[in-house]
Amino acid sequence: MIRISNIKVKNGSEASQYTNGVMEPEALSRSLIPVAAKALKIDAKAIADLSVFRHSIDARKKPDIFDIYTIDISLNINEKKALQKARNKNAQLFEPVVYKLPELGTNKMTKPPVVVGAGPCGLFAAYELACLGFKPILIERGRAVEDRQKDVENFWKTGVLDTTSNVQFGEGGAGAFSDGKLNTMVRDKDGIGRRALKIFIDHGAPKEIYYEAKPHIGTDKLVDVVKNIREDIKSMGGLVLFETKMSGLIMTDAHVTGVKVTDRAGNESVIETDTVVMAIGHSARDTFEVLNSEGVYMEPKAFAVGLRVEHPQKNINRSQYGVYESPTLPASPYKVVHNTSKGRGVYSFCMCPGGHVVNASSEEGYLCVNGMSYYARDSKNANSAIIVTVKPEDFGGEGPLCGVKFQRELEKRAFELGNGKVPVEYLADYRKKGTVKGNTDERKDWNTPCIKGDYVFASVHDLLPDDLKEAIDEGMSAFGRMIEGFDADDTLMEGVESRTSSPVRITRGEDLQAINTKGLYPCGEGAGYAGGIMSAAMDGMKVAAKICSERCPGM
What is the pTM of this model? Predict the structure, then answer.
């Protein structure tokens, strides 16, 4: 096989025809055949197969925009000789890395493994275990994703929070309501990331996620994908229990022998097992407390907090692409980073083109926000979190859960500031730190929020501690020099963004088990080993592979 990189195609040309920023994968492959033939100086008929490995957009010379492709092709002629003749420095022979499920170990597992949490980490761990015949029991405190979706919509509409089924809890995890972005910084040496993408596609995700540099599924499509994965787990003998919360572990000589579970009615029972995949999310604060009280070793870790900001998407497009909109370009993303004069890093996180800010609360009396987009990314606003990293020495306190306490302090302040509604402030008022005007007659043309849930204009400038506030203030000015209008007066500042990652790490060893609890496999976001849908899914698959390489089904 031959891989050709850095193929540059003028956006909008015949080989770059898009509908709403997306080209159907098969049509894209066909359109690139003559481009590939030209790159190798061969007849197009010599190309037996072509697939796109990576696609990105180059807007450095806007308004001249280019699509950049890396493609993989097979020829029906001698590939080595074709390469020698072409003398194209961007083309080379290669063997694709294909991830393979591990060969099973010899130690029989007599009781099904229990996977705690049906977010991306738990779902993918359970799926891989089911594929190899282990018939896992997957427990989830929240509801099935199709029911959870109704609960979330009801919360946004009425403000009535279900503390077990919300933006944080339920099948699909927090990622189900955060756009379905599949970006990851994890290197994919063994092809596990490609397998994760294929699993998504096989269960209904858009095919272009396989090659887009910044792939996303969209909250609306992710619901069906999650449901389909669950149904496959069940079809392979797995058991999925919703509204079933892990309330404790049973241990003998520091080895797990069972899991205590509590249903929605408060009835407690025990599932006997010697293998527990702890795939809880970053908001499972009560579960952190249970594990801590039972002596499972964990430690506080750095995370980040800040505010959501909103801008008109057309203005972001104009700054990034040189045009307000184009049928051949997706809603533009952005990424900004700044090191402040006091040495703090301020950066954008979970950027949602054409998206919505959402009330992502999970506890009564506390409020936090997140961002999401639907597949079409067609709302009028772009949003992202502008955040600052905080470390245990910043938020003080003692013990592994001091970061949770700090999060709650900010979320309580946000709840009180908005009286249960998302507090919002224009940057002009935020900087003046005075009277909050909101939308007035003289501001009738100013940007308005795209928020899921009620919002109210309030003193967001009073929300964060002074050092974090100063860092964000300086960052916004710096970002205004990078992206035109980023620090415009009508930029919307909303808070609080506090659930960027887990505030704890459940420490594990090289065998991927908790360092003082055998049979317990902490993984994913909640355990502190992932930061997003893809990295969480991959970590769950990694843990499943470890278990499978040592054990075999004996149930």
Answer: 0.94
